[in-house]
Design brief:
- By secondary structure, the protein is α/β, with parallel strands linked by helices.
- It has a single domain, classed as TIM Barrel (Alpha-Beta Barrel), CATH 3.20.20.100.
- The protein is about 35% helix and about 15% strand.
- It is built from 13 helices and ten strands.
- The strands form two sheets. The chain has an eight-stranded parallel beta barrel with strand order 3-4-5-6-7-8-9-10, surrounded by five helices. The protein has a two-stranded antiparallel ribbon with strand order 1-2.
- Strand 6 (about 115-120), helix 4 (about 130-140) and strand 7 form a beta-alpha-beta unit.
- Helix 1 packs across helix 2 (about 60-65), helix 4 (about 130-140) crosses helix 5 (about 155-170) and helix 5 packs parallel to helix 6.
- The longest helix is centred in the N-terminal third of the chain and has 15 residues, at about 95-110.
- One of its GO terms (molecular function) is oxidoreductase activity.
- Belongs to the shaker potassium channel beta subunit family.
Amino acid sequence: MEFRHLGNSGLKISEIAYGNWLTHGSQVEADVATACVRRALDEGITTFDTADVYANTVAEEVLGDALKGERRESLEIFTKVYWPTGPGGHNDSGLSRKHIRESIDGSLRRLQTDYVDLYQAHRYDVETPLEETMQAFADLVRAGKVLYIGVSEWTADQIRAGHALAQELGVQLISSQPQYSMLWRVIEEEVVPTSQELGISQIVWSPIAQGVLTGKYKPGQPAPEGSRATDTKGGADMVARFLQDEVLERVARLEPIAADVGLSMAQLAVAWVLQNPNVAAAIIGASRPEQVSDNVKASGVRLDADVLKTIDDVLADVVVRDPEMTARNAPKQRPS
């Protein structure tokens, strides 16, 4: 496992992080989830990403139990706040001071830790003044409950504004967590250049495009049983945008490229996002321990420029690049 600095901070994280969105507390049982976490640790992963909203707080509980007994100083534990949790009351979502302060205490309790290494704003809250949000985050840093702060799926302008306030408050906003893969490159035009300028790294989710880049979905064929495309708890909605025959046909053409460089399709996909120097880590998930072992083999892989160009040529116009997609997909009001 190789390690990279997160933003311009002194914090190093494993370049492959383990995340439990759509799996722990939802798709897989707790014992299997624990086995996946244990395998991640065995493979050298030290960075674990979760959120209070995953499985309505259960994912944090599962992760906390799975990491119990590990040396805390050897781990980097990340979580997030924004989406509704609990009964979904009028203050149970967003980035108000009230919700942030109450959410961090719940997350720390479920994760069985005194602090998180990174606390992330899971989306931008259009109903709360940014000054209020950043002041609340700064207070958590000063209280020792949070070491660093980050954001997820914020636009370049929002990142710039948040970073400026963080600097004024004397705290470090060092990360952005966007979706990023061979098929979804909306951060490249605006978010990445802005982040590079400000000393912010990307921690990217869905580097395998919800499983599409493994090649298991075939054009003109039904989705495999047990795959994310058959998950009615949310996975099917997320993967649907990629399940078009034109996309799947192009993905199939990546198989010989992966074979030529001695990688599985999943390893190629993870290695591809790690070629971007602004990416500090790619988040992988798993429903079986062997998936973790397969994906971590992407760590340290260097893809030649001609391989990268061939991938671009194959995928061509099925790649989503429009930077406006970040704003377009963002909540227009605080969810309830």
